[in-house]
Design a protein that fits this description.
about 20% helix, homodimer, 3 helices, 6-stranded mixed beta sheet, about 140 residues, alpha+beta
Chain lengths: ~140, ~140
């Protein structure tokens, strides 16, 4: 029997799917009824909407982007549910209209286990911003 | 026996505590080990940090602000845990350096029940933003 992947593995699997721009792998991260609120406050419900919201940017402005995720912490809710905080960094490339740049964000994800598989139930992302200027900031 | 308040009641209680600028009532919304990521990506852990992060703005720039919350949906995780999406609107007043204005956000909150009391376990907020301009937008 293959060792089960724990809830925190979502962070690396998310980055891997993003970096391969693989929407099938991306879809597999989410329960069918999952929710996703991106860093602009756009709210999608259901894996179909979530993928439909991401596929176009992987074909255009983020087609050469890379994403790295660092798990900040994991808070178990139950045997079948956990809360993840993930420091995330999106590095845009030449395909982006403003050229190469980085965006640092904090992801809150609720991951739950159904039928033995840990997947995302709900996720929200927020860009790190200077409260005084409203300008995006980087962690380092 | 008083009827138990359900998980969705957090939204109204959050707004009520905010609008009274009552940090004791605000603290009572959170489990002692709760996490909070505000709309600037600032990450606080534990109710003490969460209150310490909010108390100064209630004494200054948001001392005359009002907040309204509208529950978008409630997704049960278990009998003792639920995910809330909350459309939130912060109306700043004359005390704010830039004067009266509104900010619309989307809150993702994980609420859990311990010892019969539903409180916030984790919360993240994000400002609604136009992805093309980076400017804040309002829902209506």
């Amino acid at each position: 029997m293959v060792q089960e992947e724990g809830p925190a593995s979502i962070a690396a699997r998310f980055a891997d799917a993003w970096n391969r721009h693989d929407m099938a792998a991306f879809a597999a991260l989410f329960h069918v009824d999952a929710s996703f609120v991106n860093r602009f406050g756009t709210y999608w419900r259901g894996v179909e909407q979530i993928v439909a919201g991401h596929a176009p940017i992987h074909e255009t402005i983020y087609s050469d982007s890379t994403l790295t995720n660092e798990v900040a912490d994991v808070d178990p809710i139950s045997d079948d549910a956990a809360i993840l905080h993930i420091w995330s960094r999106l590095s845009a490339g030449a395909a982006h209209p403003v050229g190469p740049h980085r965006v640092d964000t904090m992801i809150l994800a609720v991951v739950t286990r159904r039928d033995g598989a840990w997947k995302i139930q709900a996720l929200e992302n927020v860009t790190l911003v200077n409260p005084r200027t409203g300008e995006p900031i980087l962690r380092d």
